Amino acid sequence: MADRSLAGRLGRLRGPTKDASACVDGSPTASGDVDPAPLVRAGTVAQDSFADRVQRLMGGSSARSPGAPDESSLAESIGAERIAPGVLRLERLLDGRTRHGCAPLSCFVLDADPGLQRPLVEMCSRPACEDDEGLRWPAVFLDTETSGLAGGTGTWAFMTGVLRQDGDGWRLRQYLLARLDAEPVYLEAVRDELADAGTLVTYNGRAFDGPLLTTRFRLAGFPDPLHDLHHLDLLGPTRRAFGRVWPNCRLTTAETRLLRFVREGDLPGSEAPAAWLGWLRRGEIAPLSGVLRHNRWDLLSLAGLLPALARSFDDPTAFGADPHAVATFHRSKGREALALRLLESERGRLGPEALLDLARLYRRRGDWDSALRLWESLSATGDQQARLALAKYHEHRTRDLTLALELALGLPPGADRERRCDRLRGKLTEVGEDAGRDIEGDRRLAPD
Amino acid sequence: MTPPTSNDASTASRHSSSTALPVERLKSRLLAKYAARISARQVQPATQAVWRELPPDLTPALDSALRARGLERLYSHQRAAWDLARAGRHLVVATPTASGKTLCYNMPVLQSVLTEGRKALYLFPTKALAQDQVAELMELGRALTESGGEGIRAFTFDGDTPGDARKAVRTRGDIVVSNPDMLHQAILPHHTKWAQFFEGLAYVVVDELHSYRGVFGSHVANVFRRLRRICRFYGVEPAFIFASATIANPAELAERLCGAPVEAILESGAPQGERHLLLWNPPVINPDLGIRASARSQSTRIARMAAKLGLKAIVFARSRLMVEVITKYLKDVFDQDPRNPPRVLAYRGGYLPSERRRGEQAMRAGTVDLVVATSALELGVDIGALDVAILNGYPGTVAATMQRLGRAGRRLRPSLGVLVASSDPLDQYLMRNPEFLFGASPEHARIHPDQLLILLDHVRCAAFELPFGDGETFGAEDLGEMLSYLRDEGVLQRQGARWYWVADSYPANAVSLRSVAEGNFVVVDTTDGAQTIIAEVDYGSAPGTLYEGAIYMVQSQPYQVEKLDWVGRKAFVTRTRADYYTDAIDYTRLKILDRFEGRLQGRGAVANGEVHLVHRYPGYKKIRYYSHDNVGYGNIALPDQEMHTTSVWWQAEPAALEAVLPDRQKAIEGFLGAAYALHHVAALRVMAELQDLGRAVGDGQGTWFAVVGNDGRGQMRGPDNEPLEIDGTRRFEPTLFLYDNYPGGVGLSAPLYDDAQRLLGDARDLVAGCACRGGCPACVGPILAGDEDLAWTPRQTALAVLELLK
């Protein structure tokens, strides 16, 4: 008779290949034994018994190995304190002279100037639509390490690091979930850290860390402490200011470029899940200390990036940011003078799109001459947008309809051009050909 | 504005007086001209409506909204559904097509939304149905606001819902209309995002219940186990409301699906026009070979006659290809002048949603006279009233047959349904046994929610959603044992008394409720340098329809596949004027991997185990329209499609086989014929569709397999499809396989193994009792002209093999 145990039945249904691939940690499974005989008449096929498997399960390598997780040696090894069974807390007080990258930590305080904070405030997600001048303090920098990137209710935030200012220095705390069933206590500790936070500062936390923590709190039956919190995700401002000039906007890229901080021997974030599982399953400690260090670096970089990003919006050139993107942001928030100043100072390096924007800003404040010069030089290089702007300018402003028509005729073919040309021809007939010629004046552009 | 008329009966009688004549004229013309082809007929008399009052506790806004839409009274089953649903009971409404089932659930749901602020989840098996339903709810919502009440927010939630709209659906929707796949992959694994929705959930509405059977139903039953588990987490116990077409066991199926007692409402209070039903067997054109005219030729003829009498008709075909072929033939007759709006319309899966919506609109507007459709239209998509339904071939189940026939005859008009038999054994069986169709539904929709692999998949998903606690149950298997197994796999970790998910994966993505989800192919039209997506083809159908050189048809416009990007899942096509269509040749190679059990039976052995299967598409045939001549071949270069599945197989003792059928050529043909018959009776036996099972003949080691060659003879082929000499000296042990045509198997082969002896008896009776002489498509498959005069006819060889194995 064939084996009726669950494993035996599954092995039969599933076949060897599938079973092996489904086995995550590569430990041997029962159905690895295959009888290749095509047809054994009325015989039986050997299968591992379920008892064999249970034995392996209980005494074997996978679940409860002899080196079962030992929290106190973990705590000792990483220098953490065990605040409850299964919850470890590692605390470090950093004085203001500690360096992270190119500057001491003490520099990582935003200037009192609320104007500098303004762009960040605008990119902050705020539960209510308060019109805050500056960021709400204190800022709490937060970063989690997770059991995976898959999302959904089966992903854990097993480590949560928080960093905040403490007097002249900084206080960095990392919470580590060392036992799965201790999650409620762990979450309570995280919640307490957030209790007095003015602004939560993360990197990609809007899409990742935030929703994940929210899910964990809901699963544990707690109210969501993030719900009413101001949340500044630094990925937003980074993308806006540097998205077009950097190869990518990863945190490591940002910290190298803005803080000149280079990680050495960092454990990649992608290896964090395996490190935690290694601890849970086999009590491995070493990889976890790598995760802790990685998480600390993330937190310090967050703190460093906040002022650097704020300044990038004030003086993009100094930080290598994209002046056009920054100016566009300011303009969208109604700071046209600032936008204009930024673009003007970078004028020599601007592309046509940015120059058009600059011309638009000139036009809006009535500086037609400056706008005209930009349009003309752009149009001379064949820029159709500039040509269109010129056509409009001459149609409505100088009323040089002939010139306007000539410009319009050079626009790319299409319904828009036809409409514009028809309108101009109509106007020309109305005022009479001669009048049109009169208006033509002497500032006529050389047709190309 | 004139309010819509509320009196259903008066509209109906007005219609019937003007149109009764053509339907009856068509029927009598068919009877007079083709009496010999009509193997059975039935008339279902018209029935009167059974009315009930609107419920007195209906909230005033809903009451006036219903009245504003002309609903002054309810059919008896609608009122019965209200009473049960408001009492919080699980219920199933199984009444005929077009009996107003939608209102059975919409009324109690809207009442609870309006008066208690509760929420409801609607599930439809397809996206198209979900969209229809939302349109319907929107209309009701408008009526509500017009009667001064509050509106309702009903949203679809499916793969097309844009990311930025999903949050609004989750937090603001009163009614979320989705499908089981979304519930499984997107909602349950993210239930915390839906917390607000779950906390208010009062009703789960499951329409088209009868489609939840087999593999799909077994999966969905487990999805519902997970749903109820999540609901308990949020402290709610929603009532399930099921709606079903007529099957034998709606209540049983519903109970199996939701795992709780369900009240059944089976009596329809809706009136029905007179229904005429004809079973039509195409004439025998070669009595010796038992070859009949094609169903297609008959269906198009009946459709033409219907359209010429001014009737609106629908033709249901079983494959997408057949839809296109029939559409072309009908368009050649009715749509010759491109200046006129088309009178013939094709409707099938694979068209883009926008195109389908346009088609539905044209049908409702009545500008289309003939619709040719696949099962995509079988389910409740609203296309307005039709007079005639023609089924080109038996759809495979009585429920599907009745639902398709029910497409004709809305609004109390008399209607005509014609089932045109194909030469398939099942169709021919029905022509000989019409009571199968005319009597009470013989069909029990079966599901196996505790099928081990399916169950384990969902235990995995459920563990991801919420940790299991010791003592919890999930399905009929020992949960603790399954959890231990998953821990051993490394995805779970037990701590305290709970089992926690710890793996870095999202298990629902690896579990498809219907088939292997490998990603759909898009068909890109590159004619004149354009890049327009004109259709989508599912992974399983792609190799057989999108190979380079294939003619792919959309609305009977042929396109030729120029390039297939297998990895990118794209087929680039250009418009063509080819006068042929293409049909892929495929063959199956099978290798036994593991034998679970076996026994001696008859003069041979039967066994059950795991096999490795390779589908290959070596080439295709070009077939000319109308003449159906084979006008050429092309090669297909595609990767092999591999599958592990379970199978049952039979072998004869070599000595006994040689004694009965010494000629190996004959023996191979006998096995092929026996496989054909066994395949069909097996599908009936396990209540599966024919395509749920596959058949093959080979040696089980992948060194040779047998096929019917282009010359109609059995051939031996090698591992690369090369022809082999049959009378070689090799060991000759032909093996007949029936395999579970689903990766991993869905437990179809085990019952076949247990029932093997009965199965062989059935197959022998089918072959022995057939009316043909030497073999025909209704027993052993098509045979060659002249073979019926052989000393050993194909029928006899097949019988010999079946006797040997029995």
From TrEMBL, chain A:
Pfam families: RNase_H_2. Residues 1-37 are annotated as: Disordered. Residues 140-306 form the YprB ribonuclease H-like domain. PANTHER family: EXONUCLEASE-LIKE PROTEIN, YPRB RIBONUCLEASE H-LIKE DOMAIN-CONTAINING PROTEIN. This is YprB ribonuclease H-like domain-containing protein. The lineage of its organism: Bacteria, Pseudomonadati, Pseudomonadota, Gammaproteobacteria, Chromatiales.
UniProtKB/TrEMBL annotation, chain B:
One of its GO terms (biological process) is interstrand cross-link repair. SMART domains: DEXDc, HELICc. InterPro entries: DEAD/DEAH_box_helicase_dom, Helicase_ATP-bd, Helicase_C-like, HRQ1_WHD, MZB, P-loop_NTPase. Pfam families: DEAD, Helicase_C, MZB, WHD_HRQ1. Residues 301-453 form the Helicase C-terminal domain. Residues 82-265 form the Helicase ATP-binding domain. GO terms for molecular function: 3'-5' DNA helicase activity; ATP binding; nucleic acid binding. Keywords: ATP-binding, Helicase, Hydrolase, Nucleotide-binding. Residues 1-20 are annotated as: Disordered. PANTHER family: ATP-DEPENDENT HELICASE HRQ1. This is DEAD/DEAH box helicase domain protein.
